[in-house]
Specification:
mainly alpha, three-stranded antiparallel β-sheet, 12 helices
Length: 290
């Protein structure tokens, strides 16, 4: 007899899960295609395309839990499918996009629960919660976050440039360097990457075997991490705009946007190391997959 541990999912569950997910996706195809169009066409919503990758990564880290997770069909699944469909229908009727999009996710979740039950959702909760980042952020929410972020980013960047003895004049959300105005608007304040940064913080917090308190601390630091990473981007970007050509500045601006993500990870690693240096408990489990 082979000593290999077999996957707990029995033969009928694999095609049943695939079939139900396919049917749920077809039922919600308009909302899902709308989410895809927004994620691939709107720069501010770049986190949408990252979310499924993060969810898959967090699921993969915890894959060994499948062996000890009972997979039992649940009647709650069809209920969630109906609730999701009603949310989508209601969103169409009242012209509320967030309801349509969230309803699509609830329908897909219902298809999964119908076959696997709720234990899978509980054991892999971080992966399922990561899929909430698939939801496009409404414009009103983006503006509520953008205005304070613009003000803080402008103030901190102005102070840092002044500290570095670089001549800079501030006028509202505009910094003038070498006579060249640099508008700290949505295109240059990290707003386009802020939700992607928050997704990076979430992935970092749940990819390591950290205590619940440490994870909550990191998630609570998301706005601070986003601001610091944004300032790290803005300082050299402003200098290039002031002393370089337009082509160089725009290229640097685009590349620096992705460097922000790396800066955010480094800030998070530094935070965890600082907590350890203070001799505070950080980890709870020996392995993230246990």
């Amino acid at each position: 007899m082979s000593g290999r541990i077999r996957h707990p999912m029995i033969t009928w569950q694999v095609p049943a899960l695939a079939g139900l997910l396919g049917a749920a996706a077809w039922m919600q195809r308009d909302a899902l295609l709308d989410i895809w169009a927004i994620g691939s066409g709107v720069t501010d919503q770049s986190h949408i395309l990252m979310a499924p990758l993060v969810a898959a990564y967090l699921f993969w880290l915890r894959r060994s839990r499948l062996r000890s997770t009972p997979l039992v069909a649940s009647p709650l699944g069809p209920v969630l499918v109906v609730v999701g469909w009603l949310m989508t229908w209601g969103g169409v009727e009242i012209n509320m996009d967030i309801a349509r999009h969230f309803g699509a996710l609830v329908t897909l979740l219902g298809a999964i629960v119908s076959v696997t039950g709720l234990q899978v959702v509980r054991r892999f909760a971080p992966a399922f919660l990561a899929m909430l980042f698939v939801l496009p952020v409404p414009g009103s929410v983006r503006h509520v976050i953008a205005i304070p972020l613009q003000g803080l980013a402008t103030s901190v960047t102005h102070s840092m440039l002044d500290f570095m003895a670089i001549p800079v004049v501030r006028n509202g959300f505009v910094l003038s360097i070498n006579g060249e105005p640099v508008a700290i608007g949505e295109a240059c304040n990290g707003m386009r990457m802020v939700f992607a940064l928050w997704l990076v913080v979430y992935a970092f917090a749940f990819s390591l075997p950290l205590r619940t308190g440490t994870r909550l601390l990191l998630l609570g630091m998301s706005p601070v991490v986003a601001l610091l990473a944004n300032v790290i981007r803005l300082i050299p970007t402003s200098i290039v705009f002031g002393y370089g050509s337009i082509e160089q500045a725009e290229l640097f601006h685009d590349v620096a946007g992705w460097v922000m993500l790396c800066a955010a990870v480094l800030l998070l690693i530094g935070t965890v190391r600082l907590i350890r240096w203070l001799d505070l408990p950080v980890t709870r489990y020996r392995l993230a997959t246990q």
